[in-house]
Write a structure and sequence with these properties.
- By secondary structure, the chain is mostly helical.
- The protein has a domain of 93 residues: 2-Layer Sandwich (Fusion Protein Consisting Of Minor Coat Protein, Glycine Rich Linker, Tola, And A His Tag, Chain: A, Domain 2), CATH 3.30.1150.
- It has 7 helices and 3 strands.
- Strands 2-1-3 form a 3-stranded antiparallel beta sheet.
- The protein is rod-shaped, with a radius of gyration of 43 Å.
């Protein structure tokens, strides 16, 4: 911040000196005519330094106000993108829960089917037992010599067998009803999952739209600053040497943080044997506090790039320095990832 104030002071000083020099040259007579004998009155144009300084301060204040307003708007867009990202994560969690519920419903349906098969088997067994009982009754009828008590006992056995058959038939119907309800519950959960996926897709589209608007705002700010920088390019030429050390510091810091980011990505990279000897170039866009806004492939092996992008998303938050100039340089960074 002190360097920026110092540069602004130098620029204002140079503007004042330039205006004073122009005023002096304007009031000077450079004609080659011989001087006349009669005395002439010399007129001088006086430039009010206070007025020039006031105008310079007004221009600088307007520029700072515009820059602050644009930064506030960018901050709001970044907050909106962060909120949309939080909504997207909540929807993903909801989808995972719906998937778990679906698996539970399918398990219950399978268990209901097993129960139905068991009841069917018992029903078949009961039918077989009834058939045997009927055969026994026929044998008993054919054997007229057997006692009436034995006949009644066999009839009672047949009656109980029929009762058991009816009971098992009722259980089978109950199991079939349970299976039907389980299927209806599964279909309802599937419909809910699809609605949740649609909501997640809509939230993702909104997040991308917010990121696009933020990118457009940053580009507009860059163009405005470039235009202002072009206006003062001539005056800033003398201060360029002073800014050389500052530029080297910013470049070194950006390179150091880039190495940190690369380490964080490689720590979360799922390495496959086929990745060794290959590279992937990843371009990341970060918010001012290091939140990942976007990650895209910028060249390299496609399979490795997919794994690298997954590792970037897993990190999601990257550390940022305190220097605003270094932060601005890190907000759009290009890294080369290769397994070690």
């Amino acid at each position: 911040m002190r360097n920026n104030n110092y540069s602004a002071a130098v620029i204002i000083s140079l503007i004042l000196h330039a205006l004073l020099l122009v005023a002096l040259l304007w009031g000077t007579d450079f004609s080659m005519d011989k001087p006349k004998q009669s005395g002439n009155t010399i007129q001088a144009v006086v430039v009010d330094p206070a007025l020039v300084n006031q105008q310079a301060q007004r221009i600088r204040q307007e520029r700072e106000n515009a820059k602050k307003a644009e930064q506030d708007r960018l901050r709001r867009l970044e907050q909106q993108a962060a909120q949309l990202e939080k909504q997207r994560q909540a929807e993903e969690k909801r989808l995972r829960e719906l998937k778990a519920n679906k698996l539970k419903a399918e398990k219950e349906a399978r268990e209901a089917e097993k129960e139905r098969q068991r009841v069917a088997a018992e029903r078949k067994k009961a039918a077989e037992e009834k058939r045997k009982a009927d055969e026994a009754a026929k044998v008993a009828k054919a054997q007229a010599a057997k006692a009436e008590a034995e006949r009644k006992a066999k009839q009672e056995a047949a009656r109980k067998a029929e009762q058991e058959r009816q009971r098992k038939l009722a259980e089978q119907r109950k199991a079939e009803e349970a299976a039907r309800k389980a299927e209806e519950a599964r279909k309802a959960k599937e419909a809910e999952r699809k609605r949740a996926e649609a909501a997640a897709k809509k939230a993702e589209q909104a997040r991308k739209e917010a990121e696009r608007k933020a990118a457009e705002a940053r580009e507009l700010q860059r163009q405005q600053e470039a235009a202002l920088n072009d206006m003062f390019a001539g005056l800033e030429a003398e201060t360029e040497q002073r800014g050389g050390a500052r530029g080297q510091f910013i470049a070194d810091e950006a390179k150091r943080y880039g190495s940190i980011y690369k380490q964080m990505i490689q720590q979360n990279l799922l390495v496959d044997q086929s990745f060794f000897g290959k590279e992937c170039v990843i371009r990341m866009r970060l918010s001012a506090n290091g939140l990942l806004l976007d990650a895209s492939e910028d060249g390299g092996d496609a399979t490795l790039c997919r794994a690298a992008k997954a590792a970037v998303v897993k990190v999601s938050q990257f550390p940022m320095p305190e220097d605003p100039a270094v932060v601005e340089k890190l907000r759009s960074i290009r890294l080369t990832v290769s397994p070690e």
